[in-house]
Amino acid sequence: MLVDLAQIHVIAGSGGNGCVSFRREKYVPKGGPDGGDGGRGGSVKLLVDPHVRTLLDCREQPRYRADSGRPGEGNRRSGKDGRDLLVRVPTGTLVKDPATGEVMADLVREGDEFVAARGGGGGRGNARFATSTHQTPRRADPGEPGEERRLELELKLIADVGLVGLPNAGKSTLLSRISRARPKIAAYPFTTLEPNLGIASLDGERQFVVADVPGLIEGAHAGRGLGVQFLRHLERTRVLIFMVDATGESPVGDCAVLEREMALYGGSFERKPRIVVLTKGDLLPPESRAGAARDAGLPDARLISAQSGEGLRAMLEELWTLVAPASSEAAPKDATHGG
Ligand SMILES: Nc1nc2c(ncn2[C@@H]2O[C@H](COP(=O)(O)OP(=O)(O)OP(=O)(O)O)[C@@H](O)[C@H]2O)c(=O)[nH]1
Ligand SMILES: [Mg+2]
Taken in order 276, 282, 286, 287, is the CA torsion positive or negative? Predict the structure, then answer.
């Protein structure tokens, strides 16, 4: 199981200073104190947003600072509060103290919130200090500093997309091409013995987790090859990619083996959307590429090459439409990042 980690530095806003001011009125020689309170500093809050799939953003931009409160003003006017800064994190984010490893929060549901750094309170203005015996206080409180700390975020990645194929179909090669994962790749079957996960990123907002698992062969459900145990890693995926070697003897036969083995394994696989890709397109003669899917007897398949990159972008775009959360509008961008 791949774990996504990020260390962030959160700094809440400080409170605004209280104000020292005296009322000025015509013909009133000494007006009373009327300095207002400072505004509260903004807090930094972590918020679970199901549109966010990984901690990639937090890793790339680890510092979050919320606005400070404004100072109070004369006429008993309070300063404006600083805006809270929301850091959007994926479902299942654990928040830990990096020094002790202690778990401070386990953010599991959409909308769960954790105050990572509390904003400082505003200072009291001098209007608050007037008493019957002391009518011209020159005292006001300064705003409190905001909290500041470092936090460790940890997310156990659950794959969105599963790669299924016979040994040597090019699963690990594809994963290495579309993510930063570096699984072992070799020109012989059963290179992959353990699942590998990687994060595919179309752009900053659109990311998903892809799992590469060992190859399946005919009879895998009965224990042949590496069996089907590892398929449980794909049970929670949203989409499957059936990967079939375009240069193989019978792509349509290979695809049928995959269908059969998955069906015999059972589980939720039949209900999952899937796409079929023909791999290693670069090895086909250029003139036969356009009609390759039809010729292979898999008219709905798309031809890709992890080597040349052909067809990868379009495949990722299609995957995104199948993986994106139901409400597919992008999450609101404002107040997502600090400086
Ligand atoms: N020319 C070409 N070769 C490829 C391509 N994709 C994979 N290969 C080669 O095919 C062989 C198998 O690739 P892998 O990615 O290890 O295949 P796999 O599906 O992960 O195999 P297992 O882990 O054994 O199930 C390697 O020699 C790769 O270099 C491609 O797009 N073009
Ligand atoms: Mg492999």
Answer: negative
The count of domains in the chain is 2
Is 19 part of a structural domain of the chain? yes
In terms of pTM, does the model score above 0.90?
no
For residues 152 and 165, membership in a common domain is answered with no
Atom of ligand 1 nearest to the CA of 190: 24
Please tell me whether residues 195 and 315 are part of one structural domain. yes
How confident is the model over 6-65, as pLDDT tens digits? 999 999 999 999 999 998 877 766 778 999 999 999 999 999 998 888 898 899 899 999
Q: Which ligand is nearest to the CA of 187?
A: 1
Which CATH number belongs to the domain containing residue 132 in this structure?
2.70.210.12
The closest ligand to the CA of 169 turns out to be: 1
Nearest residue (by CA) to ligand 1, atom 24, is: 190
**Residue 171: burial class (beta carbons within 10 Å; 0-12, 13-18, 19+):** buried
Which residue's C-alpha comes closest to atom 21 of ligand 1?
A: 168
306 CB less than 6 Å from ligand 1?
Answer: yes
Residue 330 falls within a domain, yes or no?
no
Q: Across the strands, what pairs with 113?
A: 47
CA nearest to 65, candidates 92, 78, 84, 91: 84
Do residues 219 and 176 share a domain?
yes
Domain that holds residue 301: 161-323
The answer to whether residue 299 sits within a structural domain is yes
- Of the candidates 135, 225, 212, the residue with the CA atom closest to the CA atom of residue 175: 212
C-beta 170 within 6 A of ligand 1: yes
- Ligand 2 centroid–CA 196 distance in Å is 9
> Among 43, 33, 1, 41, which Cα is nearest to 17's?
41
Torsion of CA 306, 310, 311, 312, to 10 degrees: 40
d(CA 156, CA 107): 12
Among positive and negative, which fits the CA dihedral 278, 283, 289, 292? negative
Instruction: Give the pLDDT confidence of 102-112 residue by residue, as tens digits.
Output: 999 999 888 99
**Which SS3 state, helix, strand or coil, does residue 269 take?**
helix
Q: Is 214 near ligand 1, meaning CB less than 6 Å away? A: yes
